[in-house]
């Protein structure tokens, strides 16, 4: 664990001139403020650095906008994308009037979820391992105004370019739709780019593991990093997205974590592995189904029971529900099973090591704010453990092959963001127990999503509507 003095010594020893303070807004995007090094001292890690939070999305009005950023010394790394030596430090937000953590700060909420876990006596550590998929495109254009609306994405790997002449001689190696998983070069064109992304993440303190091409055509990929404690895993995911986007930009490419940017092919998810430990020992290994403990099964029960509400945080965009449809390996069925990727909760076949025993919630995507998503999932799991929620019988079949009558008996994910927000409005007591989420935060989240995403989408004509209705 690093100390404030460790960071101050690093600044002095490496003659670092600038300190970049990063924090996350309510929807889940990093914001930053860069200071000259003499503006940081030991008090910055306790009392914080004052700033104006009036224009941050989802935060309070201008008359309550004075905030302070409290630096976390464990998150310091030298930013590889800055021309001048710049130290990046992730911050949490504090209310300067009270000195208390800001109740709308997502990183604060994540820490409160961990504190709540400890207070219950169930465990003292929540481990999280997210797997965020993304697309690498060569070109993206989009616009929406009063008289037109369109988007255009393109990739040298796109199967739709198999007949294009403008490549100066089309070489023809384009992954087929739904067949882009693990091809070697020359079909896989982004090997070196992904390697640079992965090694850059390592320089920024993320414990890297692997990278590979993903299923969809058009440049879908995934990089892997090791699981971590809940807050640090969210920090690493933010660093992951930051590095991937900036390495891509350096090479004249662009990255999106949108769940469904390409029609009629697999979307991008963020399968999230979870486990609880106590006193250094894993608690999810046992002699129940798939080598799980009874506690782990109850945790799954909590996830499945509250999944419709959870998705308002784990799948928080209108585009999220373009991915959550049958036919594209998306987990739309609220069931659990071992080694079965057609269920929304999968128990990986991880061998006999109890430390590897975990569950994987397959619904989330990387448009989520990881601090809020991880905190919400932990709260749902704790509710399942405290109330001994039975997850029901496992579903050890290929759910995609079931008949419509059989599928109708299995609960499914909400069909839209609006539906998920309605579920959250009706079912959120499991989030407010222990003071992790406040009613103010939940109401703010629902209203923000309705005002800025659901209702604006509802008002605008869709391009495909012209294909359907123009000649009516």
Characterization of this structure:
There is one protein chain. With 472 residues, this protein is of the alpha+beta class. It is built from twelve helices and 18 strands. Strands 7, 10, 11, 12, 13, 14, 15, 16, 17 and 18 form a ten-stranded mixed sheet that branches. Strands 1, 2, 3, 4, 5 and 6 form a six-stranded mixed sheet that branches. Helix 4 packs antiparallel against helix 7 and helix 5 packs antiparallel against helix 7. The termini are far apart. The relative contact order is 0.12.
Give the amount of beta strand, in percent.
15-25%
Mean pLDDT: 94
Unreliably modeled segments:
none
Reported for the largest beta sheet, the result is:
10 strands, mixed
Distance between the termini: 66 Å
Q: Which terms summarize this structure?
A:
472 residues, alpha+beta, 6-stranded mixed sheet, 21% strand
């Amino acid at each position: 664990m690093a100390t404030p003095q460790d960071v101050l010594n690093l600044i002095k020893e490496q003659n670092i001139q600038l300190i970049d303070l990063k924090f996350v807004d309510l929807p889940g995007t990093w914001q930053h403020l860069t200071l000259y090094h003499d503006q940081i001292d030991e008090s910055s890690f306790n009392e914080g650095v004052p700033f104006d939070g009036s224009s941050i999305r989802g935060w309070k009005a201008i008359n309550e906008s004075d905030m302070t950023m409290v630096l976390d010394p464990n998150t310091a790394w030298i930013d590889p994308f800055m021309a001048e030596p710049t130290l990046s430090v992730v911050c949490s937000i504090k209310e300067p009037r009270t000195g208390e953590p800001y109740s709308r700060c997502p990183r604060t909420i994540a820490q409160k979820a961990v504190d709540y876990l400890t207070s219950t006596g169930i465990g003292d550590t929540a481990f999280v391992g997210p797997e965020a998929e993304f697309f690498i495109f060569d070109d993206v254009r989009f616009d929406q105004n009063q008289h037109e609306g369109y988007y255009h994405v393109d990739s040298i790997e796109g199967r739709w370019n198999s007949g294009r002449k403008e490549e100066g001689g089309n070489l023809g190696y384009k992954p087929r739709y739904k067949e882009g998983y693990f091809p070697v070069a020359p079909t896989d064109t982004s090997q070196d780019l992904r390697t640079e992304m992965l090694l850059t993440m390592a320089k920024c303190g993320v414990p890297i593991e692997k990278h590979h091409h993903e299923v969809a055509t058009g440049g879908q990929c995934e990089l892997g990093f090791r699981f971590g404690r809940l807050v640090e895993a969210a920090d690493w995911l933010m660093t992951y997205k930051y590095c991937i986007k900036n390495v891509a930009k350096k090479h004249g490419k662009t990255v999106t974590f949108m769940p469904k940017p390409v029609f009629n092919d697999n979307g991008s998810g963020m399968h999230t592995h979870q486990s609880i430990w106590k006193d250094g020992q894993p608690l999810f290994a046992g002699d129940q189904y798939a080598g799980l403990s009874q506690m782990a099964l109850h945790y799954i029960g909590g996830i499945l029971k509250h999944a419709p509400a959870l998705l308002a945080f784990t799948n928080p965009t209108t585009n999220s529900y373009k991915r959550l449809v049958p036919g594209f390996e998306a987990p739309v069925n609220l069931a659990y099973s071992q080694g079965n990727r057609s269920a929304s909760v999968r128990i990986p076949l991880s061998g006999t090591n109890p430390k590897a025993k975990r569950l994987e919630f397959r619904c989330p995507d990387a448009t989520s704010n990881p601090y809020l998503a991880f905190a919400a999932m932990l709260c749902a799991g704790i509710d399942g453990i405290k109330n001994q929620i039975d997850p029901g019988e496992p579903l050890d079949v290929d759910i995609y092959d079931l008949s419509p009558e059989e599928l109708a008996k299995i609960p499914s994910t909400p069909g839209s963001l609006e539906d998920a927000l309605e579920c959250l409005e009706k079912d959120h007591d499991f989030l407010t127990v222990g003071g992790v989420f406040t009613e103010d935060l939940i109401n703010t989240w629902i209203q923000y999503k309705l005002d800025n995403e659901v209702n604006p989408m509802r008002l605008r004509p869709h391009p495909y509507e012209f294909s359907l209705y123009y000649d009516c």
